[in-house]
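Researcher: We're reviewing a set of sequences before deciding which ones to prioritize for further study. For each one, I'd like a predicted 3D structure that I can look through quickly. This is Cytochrome c oxidase cbb3-type subunit 1. If possible, include the structure in token form so it fits the rest of the review sheet.
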Amino acid sequence: MIFKTINRLFKSKLQLVIITLCLFFQPFIGFSQNDTDISFFPNKSIQFIDLLITVVLITVASIVVLLLKLISNTNKTANDQTEHQKSKFKEYITNLNAAEIDVIKSKRSNSNKRLSVVIIGLLYLSPQIIFAQTGPAKREDIFSEPGIVITLVLIFIPLFFALIYLVSKVTTSFRNYNNFQKLKEAEAFAEFISDDENLPSDTELEEIKQKSTFEVVPNEISAGKKSHDSKGLLKNVTSETNYRFFATKRPPIKRPKIDPALTKLVLWFLGTAVFWLFVGSSVGEYVGIKFIVPDADTYSWLSIGRLRAVHTNLVFWAWATIGIMGLGYYIVPMVSNAPLNSIKNGWIALICVNFAMFVGAITIMAGINNGGGEYREIIWPIMAIWAVGLLLTVINFIKTIAKRTTTEIYISNWFIVASYIFILIVAFIAYIPMGQDGIGETIVQGYYMHQAVGMWFMFSMLGVLYYLLPQQLNKPIYSYSLGVLAFWSQILFYTVIGTHHFVFSALPWWLQTVAIVGSVGMLIPVVAGTTNYIMTLRGSWSKVSNSYSLPFFFVGIIYYFTGSFQGTAEAFRSTNLIWHFTDFTIAHSHITMYGIITFLLFGGIYAIVPRLTGKEPPQLGVGAHFWLALIGLQFYTIPLMIGGTLKGLMWAEGAPFIDSVVMMGPYWLWRAIGGTLMWLSHIVLVYNMYKMLQPTVDVDVKEKAFEIINQNLETNLAEPKI
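Model: Here's the predicted structure for Cytochrome c oxidase cbb3-type subunit 1, in token form for your review sheet.
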């Protein structure tokens, strides 16, 4: 009775989605009516319970969807069981191939042997969800108490992950149950065709065999002939129409498999990179919660100052770096047309970078850090281990390129190898504990900050794009010359722009001016690279909607152009005076590191992993990942750019600092919403990665039935005759 009521209420999944969205945005609509209800500080009414109720409602809606899926699958199974099996079996018989017909003929010659049916136990899952109830609160503002808020958050976190686990287990149970039903049907079909009365005659079987092996020869089909399907050209024709709500993605072209040892290495690099993305973004999500509830905890290890450094270092030097290394280990041997020089050194490099990041995150949280350098808070002995991993990798790549069987060195290898050389130089200068005092530390910080972004992350990913974009489009890059122009002009201009972050500082005026000029010069490689990518896409736009990876690449290209132009605009003294040290810079850093680097990494993962494992990612999962990440990035960056501009203007007018902090409240709320969507997209990516790494086998009824028959025939032939 309850299931029928739920089914009636949410008969349309679209209605369920609309209701869920309305419940999700209800608190925000309420906030917009009265700004006195919005507060991000403990001395005012937090109204956190509204947000919590919204999340709980979304959770309940998810459970309802799960129940509907259970009802739908149960009804479908019941309908399938009541369907007349003989009609389905006869349809199978009319579509037999030559090999299967030969099996039937072999069975006929041994018809006195009976088929033994394998009985398989049914696996089921019956989770129980217990809701605890508490008495009504006696204070009206009890939910504004930090202790209550912290307790509710801590209670909900395990419930949220329990829901994810529940969905995973139920989905697995559905799949196992469906396969179990197909196995039973295969056994029934094998028993059905064991009875000669249910089978066509040998003449009819031979006719079916000829149809299945028929191949069209030139000029055999013409308009003048009568439309009689004596050759069996038309098979499995049905009047039923399958209405698709999502466009079918085009599977990748079958490629020769690469060395299994290299495949395993690349998958471990990409798998650990995705793991660090989830961990690093989860830390960032918790820091975002602390913007709303600053006293969510009192542990020094979880203070914003330390967690922010953990977040930035993990997403920079763990997620992005290890992901780039994984793509490089695939691309460099491919374009060199030569095997990787040393698989062993690749594994050592993987261990080094992962070990350094694990220890580095712990030391930062423990308060052991290089506090004077942003994005380089991990102390130099630990980063030295990280650098060893990169050094082993670039030596590996150079030796692989030296063994290439092609005449030229493809542009991808230019970018990739150069990026390793630059990051090792930059890391050495930034981390050695010499010359890091006073103004010298400021100069090194500016050099390190921008060289790491532009000459490591950006440079290497542009090289990755020069390989993967033509590969996914199945066409050559538009212009090799534009690639060379972008390569050398970026080396010329990007290496001098770091100090544009310290305009109006104690740095020499001429050094600031050189940085501004270099920032303007960066328009040359950006325009050259963007033109090259867009012109490569020209004439192939239809492929974007049919691909898993191309939408991510396209977004990365657009953000490469707009984000780089934004960086140039920020470098001028007039704009730097307003935007610098505000949230505008935070938005810009996420546009570059997330909109460009991370989106290109997403595309690279979806382009390479299916080729290595032979398993496609869930189409709906890839779509959810793309849109959650893209929409989340908009919600994150656009409000921060608006709020950062207003904050800078308030500072210029001499307004009290605390007024600018209060003014940023609503914009930080949107930042939290956008960050949460991005974090959810990473959870979807983890699931998609799992599906690509752990392929599931769907049971084919007809194929399984003949497998059973073949096993019985082999058993009968092996038995000694008396």
